[in-house]
Amino acid sequence: MFKKILIFVFLFVLSINTWAKNSFLESLNQKVEVKKKTRWTLNDWLDTKKQMSLMDSWLAANTSDHLFEFYLGVLHFNYTQDLTGQLKTELSTLSYTFTGFVSIFGLNFKSENEDDSSHLQGEILLRLLGKAEQSTRLNIFYGIENVDSNTFTETYNIPFYGASIKLYVFSFFALQAKYLTSQKTKLPNLVDVDGKTLEYGASVDVGPFQLLGDWVQKEMNYSSSVRSKKEGLRLGLLIYF
Fold first, then answer.
1. Sequence-distant contacts of 86-89: CB under 8 A, at least 24 apart
2. Which residue from 20, 88, 101, 204 has the highest number of Cβ atoms inside 10 Å of its Cβ?
3. How many Cα atoms occupy the beta-carbon half-sphere of 29 within 13 Å?
4. CA neighbours closer than 13 Å in the CB half-sphere of residue 2
C-alpha cells in the first residue's frame, strides 16, 4: 500500500512538471494572472467606500453655507528698511486689497505704492480647512507680483507661493500668520532676486468689519550681494460681504 502511494505521488509530480512545460497551459496561466490584477473584490469595495466616506466628511466640514464670499480692505504699513550699504530709513505705504471666493477657491488682488515703485499682486487661493474666510481656516496660494520701479525702464514679475492660517480664540478675536516665498527672478539689469515674507498678528471682528494688526518681516536677496529687509507694523481694516 505504501509503495502504491509513493508511485502515485511520483506520477503526480511528474505530470505537474509536464503540464508546466506545456505552452498552452502556460498561456492559460498568464491569462489568469492578468485577470487577478483587474479582479474586483468585496474588500476593494469596502476600501473604496471608506475613502469616499472620508472625502464626503472633508467636504461637509469645509463647504461654506454661503457659496460666494468677498471682502475689501485698506492697509497701512509703517516699517524700517535696512538696505546693504545704506542707513536704515523709516517709511510707510498704503495698500488696497480685494478678495473673492467661490466655495473653497479664491482670487486676491492687492495694490501698493512705495516712494520709488508700485506693486500689483494677483494670487489664486485654495482653502484647505475652514468654511469661510471670516472663520478658522487654512489657505495655500500662488501668485505673481508685478513691480513698476523707477530704477528700471520696464516692469518685471516675481512669482510667489505660500500659506496662511487664521485661528479664532474667541468668536470675535483671532490669531493669524502668513508665510510667503518669492521665487528667484531675473531683473531687467540681469541681477537675480528672491526672498521671503513672514507675517503674524491678530484681528478683531465687529460685525462685518475686521480690524487687524500684523508684524511683517520681508527680506529680498540679490545676486549682487545686496540685501533689502523691511520690518514693521501693518494695520488694516477689512469689510466682508
1. none
2. 101
3. 8
4. 0
Rounded Cα distance between 102 and 104, Å, is 6
With a CB cutoff of 8 Å and minimum separation 6, the contacts of 99 are: 70, 71, 73, 106, 107, 108, 109, 125, 133
Q: Is 139 exposed, middle or buried (0-12, 13-18, 19+ CB in 10 A)?
A: buried
* CA angle at 146 for the pair 132 and 121, rounded to the nearest 5°: 10
Q: What is the dihedral of CA 149, 154, 160, 166, to 10 degrees?
A: 40
Q: Residues with Cβ < 8 Å from 201, sequence gap 6 or more? A: 175, 176, 177, 212, 213, 214, 215, 234
Q: 3-class SS at 18?
A: helix
Q: For 131-158, what is each residue's pLDDT tens digit?
A: 889 999 999 999 999 999 988 888 999 9
Hey, what amino acid is at 104?
I
Residues, the chain, total? 241
Distance CA 11, CA 207 (A): 89
Specify the pLDDT at position 15: 56
pTM, entire model: 0.73
The β-bridge relationship of strands 137-149 and 68-83 is unpaired
Say what the pLDDT of residue 153 is: 86
